[in-house]
């Protein structure tokens, strides 16, 4: 059994002791973790990890992910190399304009349909005419994305859909404790945006691992351009799950009043979780992503892996179709 281990308290020391990791907190408490469980260490605070512990995690084909104070993934240690044949196929699909556009269009279509489906479920009880109008608009944009022959146009369609979708949050959150003044990413300026942004970082680490499991190269995407600072494929696959996992989770947390204004601190126009609230949000995320999805008996985390493997199949099918023609 493998699991995510969060190191989210300042002063933690991690060392190797035989076939296990020793995790010692600042107050002297010690926990032991078999190396076979150390699939991923997620560092969100100032901690010390010995060289021997790092080497043991990497030798066990695990990874160590560092998340900064803003909730962004700052870096990752671990094997990222994909399988050679799949890497060649991935690069060929990126280089072939028609193949790249088909894969990118599928990503945008899935994201927009997911946004539409969330609003459709919410509007069953609200019966709001403005939301109903956006639902129709998203359906039309999904069809437009499917037939698009340009990456630039796809990005434009995705942007229009995202704005229309997030504009409805003012209605969805009206009357509640949190207000919505639009999507603000860098920095997040209010609690809702802070939850969304931090949630997307949690999603990113699971998408990264799914890409690795599927033997793909995280640096070669299809919707997003190659970027020396960002792994394009990670952001491609994240698009599919932003609405279905993070947006739904945040709306659920707000509906159940799991967090209040006191769980956030705003300084210099930037809104961040308080430390204890951050830990609670991580727990909510891990519980939520481990649950079965609404329409299939499979956890959301496994569905992310299935999506990455589905991309491998998509590229293989495109290759096979080319050979036949």
Concise structural overview:
The protein is an alpha/beta fold and 325 residues long.
Q: Could you characterize the architecture of this molecule?
A:
The structure is a single chain. By secondary structure, this protein is of the alpha/beta class. The chain has 2 domains: 3-77, Ribosomal Protein L15, Chain: K, domain 2; 84-104 and 173-324, Four Helix Bundle (Hemerythrin (Met), subunit A), CATH 1.20.120. 54% of the residues lie in helices and 14% in strands. The chain contains 10 helices and 10 strands. The chain has helices spanning 51-59, 84-95, 97-126, 129-146, 151-167, 169-172, 191-213, 232-255, 275-289, 300-324; strands at 3-7, 13-17, 20-24, 30-34, 38-43, 48-49, 63-67, 73-77, 264-267, 270-273. The strands form 3 sheets. A 4-stranded mixed β-sheet has the order 1-5-7-8, with helices on both faces. α3 (97-126) packs parallel to α5. The longest helix has 30 residues, at 97-126. The chain starts with a strand and ends with a helix.
């Amino acid at each position: 059994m493998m699991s995510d281990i969060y190191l989210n308290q300042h002063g933690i020391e991690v060392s190797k002791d035989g076939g296990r990791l020793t995790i010692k907190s600042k107050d002297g408490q010690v926990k032991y973790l078999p190396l076979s469980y150390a699939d991923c260490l997620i560092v969100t605070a100032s901690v010390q990890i010995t060289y021997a512990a790092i080497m043991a995690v990497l030798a066990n084909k695990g990874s160590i992910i560092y998340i900064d104070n803003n909730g962004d993934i700052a870096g990752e240690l671990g094997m990222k190399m994909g399988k050679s044949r799949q890497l060649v196929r991935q690069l060929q699909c990126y280089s072939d304009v028609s193949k790249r556009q088909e894969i990118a269009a599928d990503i945008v279509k899935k994201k927009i349909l997911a946004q539409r489906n969330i609003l459709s479920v919410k509007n069953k009880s609200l019966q709001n005419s403005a939301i109903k109008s956006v639902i129709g608009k998203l359906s039309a944009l999904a069809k437009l994305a499917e037939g698009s022959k340009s990456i630039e146009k796809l990005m434009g369609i995705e942007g229009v859909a995202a704005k229309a979708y997030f504009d409805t949050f003012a209605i969805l959150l009206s009357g509640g404790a949190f207000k919505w003044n639009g999507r603000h990413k860098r920095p997040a300026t209010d609690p809702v945006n802070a939850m969304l942004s931090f949630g997307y970082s949690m999603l990113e680490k699971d998408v990264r691992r799914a890409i690795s499991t599927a033997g793909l190269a995280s640096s070669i995407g299809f919707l997003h351009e190659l970027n020396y600072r960002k792994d394009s494929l990670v952001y491609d696959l994240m698009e599919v799950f932003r609405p279905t996992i993070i947006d739904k989770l945040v709306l659920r947390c707000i509906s159940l009043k799991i967090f209040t204004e006191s769980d956030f601190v705003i300084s210099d126009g930037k809104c961040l979780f308080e430390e204890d609230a951050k830990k609670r949000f991580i727990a909510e995320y891990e519980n939520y992503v481990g649950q079965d999805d609404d329409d299939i008996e499979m956890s959301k985390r496994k569905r992310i892996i299935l999506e990455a493997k589905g991309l491998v199949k998509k590229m293989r099918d495109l290759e096979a179709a080319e050979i036949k023609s």
